[in-house]
Write a structure and sequence with these properties.
Length: 324
């Protein structure tokens, strides 16, 4: 019986993979991205370098997983959960009509492995699994819907004022436009900047080129990580694809001493996305090093939550005082 179950699972996995690839090819043939939008900032100063329709709402696609992973990472760092926790893969994901690109994993999995699957291979069922477990850790509920409330509250706290998430994976959802769902390339860049500035472990995960998990070789969907002809370092971020958004990417990239964060939507395929993204990066790196002129637009990255505890320093510079 065990042999037959193994054959059945293998057949189901192979069929799912075929249908996913076939569906993607059909989508490529039928879908035209709604718009091309991008936003680029200096990763250190936050100064805006380039932008096009950066404040217009677009579908975040799988780039929404950056927020899902951020909340999970924050829960881990608060001691509310551990990467070694066993989490049960969301049982309803295989039945949902909006769910594509599934891991094929069953039963329980280490939380750390689920995060790798969501970050590297962009598995949507694992994003839903992480969402359910993280909502429970924050005592916000046990469902993905309740987790989405956490995502949107965190987005507002990070200054992502034009973002309304609607699920943990970023997959398209009916009536999203009517519900005013979506994000902007500016907001997605703000999100990645916060990760870069405050969560190096998550940045490392988002920059993992390949990993072996549960006997499966995961290869990052970000083609920049595999293109040896590019003179970039310190690459991390998240790709995305929906019919409306096209092929998209939000990434941190370093060249020499310069670091930039860019977000782009509107690619016709993965090659077109990389070509457009590299062209934007070339413009950004060719620009003079930002000198922070007073009238230049900047992204002021800040966590708007009230600090849990304010501790005054022992020594305060002359002319200043510490106010609790």
């Amino acid at each position: 019986m065990a042999v037959f179950r193994s054959i059945e699972h293998s057949f189901r996995a192979a069929t799912l993979a075929f249908l996913t690839l076939w569906g993607a090819e059909q989508a490529d043939a039928q879908c035209v991205p709604e718009r091309e939008s991008y936003f680029v900032m200096d990763a250190q100063s936050g100064q805006v370098l380039l932008e096009k329709d950066a404040g217009v709402r677009v579908q975040p696609a799988s780039m929404a997983k950056m927020m899902t992973l951020l909340l999970a990472q924050e829960a881990i760092e608060k001691g509310l959960m551990s990467p070694d926790d066993r989490v049960v893969i969301a049982s309803t994901t295989s039945l949902r009509q909006d769910m594509e690109r599934l891991s094929g994993w069953r039963g329980s999995v280490r939380l750390g492995d689920a995060m790798k699957g969501a970050a590297i291979s962009s598995f949507n069922d694992l994003a839903a699994t992480i969402a359910e477990y993280t909502a429970k850790a924050f005592k916000a509920g046990r469902t993905e819907i309740e987790f989405v409330a956490l995502m949107n509250r965190r987005a507002q706290e990070l200054g992502m004022g034009d973002t309304q998430f609607y699920n943990a994976s970023g997959l398209p959802k009916r009536l999203v436009r009517a519900q005013a769902g979506g994000s902007t390339t500016r907001d997605l860049a703000i999100l990645l900047k916060y990760i870069a500035d405050h969560h190096p472990a998550l940045a490392e995960l988002l920059g993992t080129s390949e990993a072996k998990v549960r006997g499966q070789n995961l290869k990052n969907t970000n083609t920049l990580l595999h293109n040896v002809t590019l003179a970039y370092q310190n690459i991390f971020g998240k790709t995305g694809y929906t019919c409306d958004a096209g092929y998209a990417l939000t990434a941190h990239v370093q060249q020499g001493e310069r670091r930039v964060i860019a977000s782009y939507v509107g690619g016709k395929d993965a090659k077109d996305r990389e070509k457009a993204f590299v062209g934007i990066l070339d413009q950004a790196f060719a620009a003079p090093v930002p000198k922070r002129p007073e009238d230049a637009p900047k992204i002021h990255q800040a966590d708007l939550r009230e600090p849990e505890e304010l501790v005054c320093p022992e020594q305060v510079p002359d002319g200043l005082e510490c106010v609790r």
